[in-house]
Amino acid sequence: MNRRTLPCVLIAASSLCLTIFLAACGGAHTPIGAIPPASTTLQAETGNNTSAPNSFARQTNGNAAAGNISKLPIGSLLYSGSTTKIYATWLGWFGQPNHMNVGYVSDTQAQVHAQVQDMISRGIAGAIADWYGVANTNIENATTLLRNEAETTSGQFQFAIMEDQGALGSAAKSNGCDVTAQLISDLTYIASQYESSPAYIRVNGRPVVYFFDVDAFYIDWSRVLSSVPGNPIVLLRGTNGFTKATSDGGYSWVNIQQATPFDPELNLQDSFFQAAQQAPQRLAVGTAFKGFNDTLAAWGTNRVIDQNCGQTWLESFVEAGKFYSSSNQLPALQIATWNDYEEGTAIEPGIDNCVYLVPSQSGTTIHWSVNGQENTIDHFTVFISTDGTNLSPLVDIPAGTHATDLSKLNLSASTTYFVFVKAIGLPSIQNKMSPAIAYRPGHQPPAVALNVSQSGDLTYTASTSGSSGSVAKSVIDFGDGTVLSGASATHTYTAVGTYLITATVYDSAGASSVAVQQVSAKASSNGITFASPASGSTVNWPTPIIASANPGTPVSAMQVLIDGHVAYAAHGDTINTAVKVFTGSHQISVQSLDASGNPTSTASLTVDAEPGEIGPVANIVITVMPSISPTTVLGCTAASNGFIIGSKLQYSDGSTFTTPAALETFPAPGTYTATATVTDQFGATNTTSITFTVP
């Protein structure tokens, strides 16, 4: 129900010829007339409305559980008058054993259809498919389904291919990091199978192909571009796209260069836009993202950008407006990402804004308070119901206004109604529904008072005994599925974390009031308390880090350090996450921080991580490159054994490379040495050296 509030809006329910007028039509947000017939349900307004499966639960890397989200057009978050095309990076690899289980298999027609429809409903114009080559049959099948689905949308939805570095890995291993021939083969296939589609993204008639880190290997781009059909637009990641002669442009991405999780590092987005404006003849594709957290990715290294309850998402859109406007349009923007759950960037299930609403009644006026940052909310919708299940929408109210008057409705004095208020988020932000209050015309419910106290580790007592008025019944919901009746109840949570305790008191006529209090379920002892891991324990990835703080002073945030380096941080006084601890003995520390970011308390322990890890084996291949110069060689570490996430190759002339391919031109013929160190996904390293002759 994403109706915008406009002056003198008339909403008609044809069955009753009902009219409801908003504030500008005479009245302080006062619904007028009979209650419209129920047109929705509580389940529909709070249940999952995304293509993520209902089974998808909140992850420790910040991905929210599949929820009810705002379907307002994402492009509205950009600068005024924007005509920028909004695309999303799409991953087709789920269901493969080397990726996490997110509740669906990517290469099924039903799932691809659901995802495309979901993207269309959010104003996304197309998907950029991260492609791993024909040999990866699962991703290839999923991408073919994406193409087929896009072709059924009558131009509403397009797609393009992103050639991933992973598509070239086998060729790099077998050919000394020279992947030119493989890239030509891939692009020829892409031209035939994908660029021929009427749904393929084109700019000025040319098909657009994205390239993700393929420059980690050696590519003779002149040979590639003279060999492949279709005259594709070559888009490289980052500012390289604006400086390399063989590129037609660049696209921005999430960049992380610091161990500061609360810094979204938007200055790196600024650098991209500045470079783009220095090369106006090239195509620029910006990016937006909700955050980043790769602690659950096999290739992860504890790189984190905190979502900050939706603020990172909104700020990343604002950044483009510093450089573009209605008179200087950004051509396209790519969301990173639609569904990369492993790096904590997926917007598919929605973005949690950490908001909750508390409604109340004063006479005939319904009020509500907003807890959390209201700048993530577009508007409120008020619903009324006679059974608490089937809902009638009454009125949309803009953010910033927190009341509506029910006096002009034709309500029966002998009927108890249920009133809900729903906060409709900004695009892709999760919507939040208030608890219900039972409204009886002419009746003032008892005034609820909720007192919560901690009585032990993760144990809390909630009481409504301070409520005033005639209380006939009291119900306390502890927010984890435990609901107890009575004026006082005690409950022990099973997990450290943040919960909402909701208390509802009723009078004998059924009218009710509610109170909500957010609590941190944690240990009762002073200082920092670890729940996991145990000191001296053996741990494997992902390693749960569960801790809470009672330092005696207000806690703004908590952070996890491994050997003194920040690996994770979160707002609040509890930590319940997972990190990657590299193989060997390490010290893990948890600190509580004050509002200025200064540590107020610290606890540390030592663990032995990944004791069964079998390390990598470094391998170097040297190939003379006479086509470039007589003294040019191509060093390659791609044939190293193991799951390699880092490479370093240093020549004896002092040149150092951090990519698998290391192209070097020596000043003269002679004998030289190359030394390579490779690092696997658990931090184990191996080093080897070879001596070679430059003829």
Write a brief structural summary.
The protein is mainly β. Among the domains are: 82-343, TIM Barrel (Alpha-Beta Barrel), CATH 3.20.20.80; 527-609, Immunoglobulins (Immunoglobulin-like); 621-694, Immunoglobulin-like, CATH 2.60.40.
What report would you give on this structure?
The chain is mainly β and 695 residues long. Among the domains are: 82-343, TIM Barrel (Alpha-Beta Barrel); 527-609, Immunoglobulin-like (Sandwich); 621-694, Immunoglobulin-like, CATH 2.60.40. 12% of the residues lie in helices and 37% in strands. Strands 4-5-6-8-9-10-11-14 form an eight-stranded parallel β-barrel, surrounded by five helices. Strands 3, 17, 18, 20, 21 and 22 form a six-stranded antiparallel beta sheet that branches. It is globular.
Topology summary:
Blueprint: E1 10-13, E2 18-21, E3 40-41, H1 42-46, E4 85-91, H2 109-121, E5 126-131, H3 137-151, E6 158-164, H4 169-174, H5 180-195, E7 202-203, E8 206-212, H6 221-227, E9 233-237, E10 249-251, H7 267-277, E11 283-288, E12 292-293, E13 304-305, H8 311-320, E14 332-335, E15 356-362, E16 365-371, E17 377-385, E18 390-398, E19 403-405, E20 417-425, E21 432-433, E22 437-439, E23 451-456, E24 459-463, E25 473-477, E26 483-485, E27 488-492, E28 497-506, E29 512-521, E30 527-532, E31 538-539, E32 543-550, E33 557-562, E34 565-571, E35 574-579, E36 584-593, E37 599-609, E38 621-624, E39 632-636, E40 644-651, E41 656-657, E42 661-665, E43 670-680, E44 685-694
Parallel strand pairs: 4-5, 4-14, 5-6, 6-8, 8-9, 9-10, 10-11, 11-14, 31-37
Antiparallel strand pairs: 1-2, 3-18, 7-8, 12-13, 15-16, 16-19, 17-18, 17-20, 20-21, 20-22, 23-24, 24-27, 25-26, 25-28, 28-29, 30-32, 32-35, 33-34, 33-36, 36-37, 38-39, 39-42, 40-41, 40-43, 43-44
Helix pairs in contact: 2-3, 5-6
